[in-house]
Amino acid sequence: MIANWKMHKTVEESRAFARELVRRMSRSAPSTQLIICPTALSLWAVGQELIGSRVMLGGQNLDLGREGAFTGAVSGYLLHEAGAKWVIVGHSERRQYFGESDSLVSQKVAQAWESHLRPIVCVGESLNDYREARTISVITRQIEALFKETSREALRNIIVAYEPIWAIGTGEVPQPSQANDVAALIREILAQKIPDDRDDVPVLYGGSVSSKNIHQFLSQPHIDGALVGGASLHVEEFLKMADIAPYENTNQEQ
Ligand code: PGA
């Protein structure tokens, strides 16, 4: 299960959450693999709290390049140095508000891999696309675009999160079986491109996941976990969800 905190929580609040999580986890010992993605500014502080725990750290975005005159940019190398093992790439909010194209997303996936980070790649259709039955073509385009700039080796080591844009932060969710069908489609496309690796790329669902509905998604055969925004901001809710999520096959250190 992945927590995407977006632009929430101060450094102190992030640190307090991590401390509380680690303390409570050692008692309840959930078997779920957990990744927390705080703001870039809180990565280091949260990472310090997570040392020795099974919770991993992820960034929410990276910029291209290693270092240089790019005012305001944060490279994958810096995220990695701050303790991140993972990074979210291509979240719909990045695509929508920061103009990230399929091509840039693919370049970022390659850059993440080069920076020793494993990418969590988000794909998903808009409400319009959903209504006009274009989900399959949008997802196919987004997944196929990844192969333009990124090596197959890197793509073997990603997580894909299917996040319908209309479900993010809205309280609306697709039928779990519909989300499962899209997850199956993602597996199918990856299998065609990386024939020997069909089941190794975990596929998650994201969009208005909470402790009330997570089990409906996780009980689907093609959905391995959840990418959670709003509901991941509360430690109680986070622990509830983590106890529900079954352990899956994402524990491959680079
Ligand atoms: P949400 O966000 O759980 O608040 O809908 C999910 C996401 O954007 O990753």
Write a concise synopsis of the structure shown.
With 254 residues, this protein is α/β, with parallel strands linked by helices. Helices cover 43% and strands 13% of the residues.
Write a structural description.
There is one protein chain. It is built from eleven helices and eight strands. The chain is α/β, with parallel strands linked by helices and 254 residues long. It has a single domain (2-243), classed as TIM Barrel (Alpha-Beta Barrel), CATH 3.20.20.70. Residues 247-254 have low confidence and may be disordered. Bound molecules: 2-phosphoglycolic acid. Residues 4, 163, 168-169, 206-209, 227-231 line the site of 2-phosphoglycolic acid. The site of 2-phosphoglycolic acid has 13 residues, from strand 8.
Spatial strand sequence of the major β-sheet: 1-2-3-4-5-6-7-8
Q: Work out the helix count.
A: 11
**Strand residues, percent:** 5-15%
Taking all residues together, what is the mean pLDDT? 92
- Calculate the terminal CA-CA distance, rounded to whole Å: 19 Å
Please report the total strand number as a whole number: 8
Q: Estimate the helix proportion, in percent.
A: 40-55%
Q: Can you tell me the CATH topology? A: TIM Barrel
Structural class: alpha/beta
Coarse morphology: globular
* Sheet of most strands: 8 strands, parallel, barrel
The CATH class? Alpha Beta
